[in-house]
Amino acid sequence: MKIVYGTILNPLSPLDLWYCEDGALVFDEKTGKILFVGEAKEAREDFPQAEKVDTPDNILITPSFVDAHLHAVQYKIIGTFEGVELLPWLQKFTWPEESKFAKSDYAEKVFQEFLHDLLRNGTTTAAVYSSIHENAVHALYDISQDKARLFIGNVLMDQNSPDYLLQKTDDAINVVERLAKKYKDRYVVTPRFAITCSMKLMKSVAAIARKYNCFIQTHLSENKEEVEFVRKLFPDCKNYTDVYYQAGLLGPKSIMGHAIYLSNQELELLRNTNTKIAHCPISNYELLSGRMTVERFLLMGVNFTLGTDIAGGHEISMLGVMRRFLDEHRYFAPIRPSQALYWGTLDGAEALGLQNVAGNLAYGKYADFLVLHKPKGAVNPDEYMEGLMAGDYDNIVAKTFFEGREVYSKQN
Question: Which of 249, 352, 405, 361 is nearest to 23 (CA)?
């Protein structure tokens, strides 16, 4: 049994954050579960035998972060934009890099670096896009085991793709079947986007997702050129969202990335199917895609969470995503800095069906939490979050815990 003392910021809902200046978190390192979260005085009285976790002075304790949309196979090309938009960027930088993951030794090397950086920045749960390659999916699961909770899927590409990544439809379906059978609900059926996937492929893998209770992830309406391309590819569908609806890809276990250019009809379809959106504000800005109209999503009750979308997004820290989220929408939606923590933690956990076991700090949940250096001069939750989001992300996280295990420490 261990105890950590500090100021606690604990999101409970989009509007409600529990804050304790002199707090404590008690957890069982054997089960990985939280035993107590509350006032430090009460913890000392109730858990006198708990071993104190060695931490710096003046710390914040928060849940660890949840990233709802990232591409692990793009980790090595973070920051390569050169002012190009989505489709040229994929052709020039992304697809050549992803082809390298056919080699297991390359995949393992990159994934080791990627995972260390992810934990160093406080993210322990994520929905991850891999390459088309089956071996790469196995490698990332193996490397992340007991260190992070990754939901992983191999992208599917059976049309409009470079020859070196183009899959035969039946081969792609067979790979999905094998991986879904092995990893069940931790595997994510991942049509890259409608441009690279035939309707036969999308319908077939949607059926596999239902069979094995898998999550589904893909991209939706990220770029105007992409939207027009999809309209021409699927003329019998009402719109981009309807393509996925007709394929059977929408639903409560589906996460659509970006969703920038959507009609009210499309938003209603997403709401009615309880489909989740991964909002990637840094990537939307860097690739010149546009602004997701968060205010419309809030008004119409469409669920969205946050993602880094590396490498379209240049920042692997969810604090950077939260900062951009606030800056981009400050004149459109009244979201306070302390509320951003909800979208980077509990909201992401809810999108992945983890709200009962992770996402915030509560008795019986897994001890997924961060020890953060407290910003100087801050005296309330909004100021603490402002300080964290404005700081040096490389040095903010002192320790990262996943299921009661210390998986990163800045001293190491």
Answer: 361
